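Good morning,

Attaching, inline, the backbone tokens for the sequence recovery test we're adding to the shared suite. The designed sequence is right after.
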């Protein structure tokens, strides 16, 4: 079955990100939630399985988007908190979490099971009286798509790390090498059309990217893994909408115009069109597990 969602939000919403380029922020958030967000489900599940997320695990998700990764953790019994800079996505995440709890007959436990906050209210994510520190911190939006896309992650980690006990795992995610990521050719459009092509162009993924972020945050690496996360779309139009919802192409849109960027993305997708009209792009992502000091 073709997947119809997605992998990365390279605006990443880690912290203090520039406003999205969109005439309708709500539509953009829905495109992310309905088309793009699910592409990284294999990554979420691999991490949760490896770290044994289960009933009672306290998870803090940085750049939680519209909340799919948190919902998967909550389905395992975890208590989840998410922060994001995109308020439209947070609104969708709240709707999803509430609906999920209602289906399970747990709506009266919403405050205890899940909390969703804008990134400028990270302090409100601190464990309150009677609550233990976080058992896991995740930053699932992959870095390595455009140069500098991890800048907002550092401040978010600086605020999040003190909310966990010593030795708590922190998971960082990144794009794999270009030769393992079919979407690489499409991402290059962002740099070619942007006003800073040298700084914005898709660059080869460096193995030490995640380790460098961890080191700057004072974290100690403690394992890593790779996960196949293909990007699959029902048709070319859905693919263009999903990819635009990531924010990777915002600079290109500001420099040129949305119509041109849509055209360029559409043309770059041609090699990945299948006979039935679907779009399929195999990708590999890498994650790093690091420990808090």
């Amino acid at each position: 079955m073709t997947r119809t969602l997605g992998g990365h939000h390279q605006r990443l919403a880690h912290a203090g990100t520039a406003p999205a380029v969109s005439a309708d922020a709500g539509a953009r958030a829905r495109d992310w939630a309905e088309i793009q967000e699910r592409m990284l489900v294999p990554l979420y599940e691999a991490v949760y399985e490896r770290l044994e997320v289960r009933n009672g695990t306290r998870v803090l998700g940085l750049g939680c988007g519209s909340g799919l990764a948190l919902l998967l953790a909550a389905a395992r019994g975890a208590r989840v908190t998410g922060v994001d800079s995109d308020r439209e996505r947070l609104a969708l995440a709240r709707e999803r979490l509430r609906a999920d709890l209602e289906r399970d007959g747990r709506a009266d436990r919403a405050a205890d099971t899940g909390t969703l906050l804008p990134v400028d209210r990270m302090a409100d994510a601190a464990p309150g009286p009677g609550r233990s520190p976080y058992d896991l911190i995740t930053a699932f939006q992959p870095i390595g798509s455009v140069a500098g896309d991890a800048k907002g992650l550092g401040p978010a980690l600086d605020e999040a790390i003190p909310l966990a006990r010593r030795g708590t795992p922190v998971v960082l995610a990144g794009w794999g090498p270009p030769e393992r990521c079919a979407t690489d050719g499409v991402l290059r459009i962002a740099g070619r059309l942007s006003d800073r092509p040298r700084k914005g162009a898709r660059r080869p993924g460096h193995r030490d990217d995640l380790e460098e972020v961890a080191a700057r945050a004072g974290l100690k690496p403690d394992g890593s893994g790779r996960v196949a996360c293909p990007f699959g779309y029902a048709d070319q139009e859905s693919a263009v909408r999903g990819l635009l919802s990531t924010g990777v192409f915002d600079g290109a849109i500001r420099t040129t115009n949305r119509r041109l960027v849509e055209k360029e993305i559409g043309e770059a997708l041609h090699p990945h069109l299948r006979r039935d009209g679907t779009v399929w792009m195999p990708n590999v992502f890498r994650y790093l597990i690091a420990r808090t000091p």
